[in-house]
Amino acid sequence: MKKELITFHIGQCGVQSGLHFWEQLIYEHEIGPDGYSQVKYMNSEEVLEPFGFFNVMRDDRYVPRTIFVDTDPTTIEEAKNALLRSLFNPRCFFNGKEEAASNFARGRFILGADLIEPIIDRIRQEVEATDNCQGFIVNHSIGGGTGSGLTVRIMEHLTNEYCKAISIQFPIFPSEYLSTTVVDPYNAVLHCGFNVPNSNMTVMMDNSAIMGLLSRHLQIEKPTVVFLNRLIAQIQSNFFCGFHYNGDPICSTMEEVITNLIPFPELHYVYVRHAPIVAARRHDYQTHNNPPEDIVKAALKPQFNTLSADKYTRSKIITTVLSFRGVAAGWQRTLASTILQSKMNQSMNIVDWCPTGVKVAVHAVPPLKPVPESCITESPTNLTMIINGTVTTQRALQTINAQFNRLYERRCFVHWFVGEGMEEGEFTEASGAVREVIDQYKNAEMVEE
C-alpha cells in the first residue's frame, strides 16, 4: 500500500528550505526539474518510485504533493520563478499582500484570516487525491510572524479535520546568540504554547547549531542559508526515506514512527543527529567505508547535533530511533552489539523506566545522494538518529522561555501584539503551557524508587 504524505512550507524560512527539500528528492530519484523521470527503463525492478511525496499524472509526470504559504508575496514570487518552477502545481502557492512584520498575532489573526480559506480548500483537494494519506510534514521557523502565527492556524485546522493523520513539524528555533528580530522569543513561546495539542512530533533545530556543524565538518567559515537548507533537506530525506522510496518495509506507517518516539503526548519534542558528514573536497583522502558501529559512535557525540542545546552529556534519552540507509546485509547483529555496549558504558544514557527505548531501522533503500552543490560527498552508509531526550529538550525550551520572560516583565513590545487581536493574558497562558512541558521532561528524568 502506498504511504502518502503532504508537505507544508510556511513563511520565508519554510518556503526557502522547501525548495531545497524538493531539489534533494528529485536528485535522488533522478527526476528532472520539469517533473519527468530521467531513468531510461521505468519497468526495472531496481527503480523505487517516490509515491510517498509525489502525485503521478497521466503523462507520467511527478508533481510534488505540497503547499507553499507566505504572507509576503516576494518570497512566493521567488519560488514561482525558481529553477524548479515547472515541477510544482501552480495552485500550490499561496501568498498575502504584505508581510507579517515578525508578529505572531498578525500572522495568526489578521493576515491568516485572509489566507486560511483557500489553503483549507487546497488541503482538502490534496487529501482527496491520495489513496492513503499518512499525515503531514510542516517546515517553518517559529521566530517570524508567519512561521509562528499562521502555522498555528493551519495546524489547528489539520487537528480538527484530519485528527487521525499524523503531523510532524520541523521548526527552526531562534538561536540564543543568533537572532533576526528582538521579538523572536515572543513568537517562539506563543507558537509552542498554543501548538502543544496540535503537533504529534516536533523536530527541533536551530541555525546556530547547523552552522557549527557545517563549519566543523565542511570547513566552511561562514555558511550561507543555502548550505543550511541543503543540509536540512538531506536530514529530512534520510528521516523519511521509508516513505519516499515505495516498497521499503521499515517504518511502514507514520503511527509507527511516533509510537517508537513519543511516550506521552506532551513529550513530543525531539532532536536529530546526522552522520557521516564529509566534505566533497576530502573525498579522495578519506575513506567512506565506515562500518555502521563507527557511525553510531560518531552520532552519539554532540559534534553532529542540529540543536544548540544538544551539548549536555548528562541529558538522558527517553526514546531514540536510529535510521540507517545503505547498511549491508548481515550488519544487524553488529549493530545490536554496538548499541548494547553503548548502553553499558552510558554513552547512550537511557532513562531507567524505559530501558527498551531504542529502535533500529535499517532501510533497504540506496544511500543518501547529496546534491553536488551542497559540498557534501556521498557515503555508502548514512545514519539519522532521532532522540527524545530530557535535559536537552528542557534547555531548548527554557532558553526561549527565559528570553520571553525578560521581555514580558517590562511589557516590551506587547502593544504591537495586542493591537493585532491578541489579549495580554494569552502571553502568560502560552508561557505557562511551555513551563508545563518543561516540567513533564523533568519528571521523565526522575528515577522511580
Automatic annotation (TrEMBL):
Swiss-Prot/TrEMBL keywords: GTP-binding, Hydrolase, Microtubule, Nucleotide-binding
InterPro entries per the UniProt record, alphabetical: Alpha_tubulin, Tub_FtsZ_C, Tubulin, Tubulin/FtsZ_2-layer-sand-dom, Tubulin/FtsZ_GTPase_sf, Tubulin_C, Tubulin_CS, Tubulin_FtsZ_GTPase
Keyword Oxidoreductase: no
Catalytic activity: GTP + H2O = GDP + phosphate + H(+)
Keyword Manganese on entry: no
Any Gene Ontology biological process: microtubule-based process
A GO MF label: GTP binding
The Tubulin/FtsZ GTPase domain, residue ranges: 50-247
GO CC, one annotated term: microtubule
Source superkingdom: Eukaryota
Family as reported in the entry's similarity comment: Belongs to the tubulin family.
Oligomer status and interactors: Dimer of alpha and beta chains. A typical microtubule is a hollow water-filled tube with an outer diameter of 25 nm and an inner diameter of 15 nM. Alpha-beta heterodimers associate head-to-tail to form protofilaments running lengthwise along the microtubule wall with the beta-tubulin subunit facing the microtubule plus end conferring a structural polarity. Microtubules usually have 13 protofilaments but different protofilament numbers can be found in some organisms and specialized cells.
Physiological role: Tubulin is the major constituent of microtubules, a cylinder consisting of laterally associated linear protofilaments composed of alpha- and beta-tubulin heterodimers. Microtubules grow by the addition of GTP-tubulin dimers to the microtubule end, where a stabilizing cap forms. Below the cap, tubulin dimers are in GDP-bound state, owing to GTPase activity of alpha-tubulin.
Stated name of the protein: Tubulin alpha chain
Organism the protein comes from: Echinococcus multilocularis (Fox tapeworm)
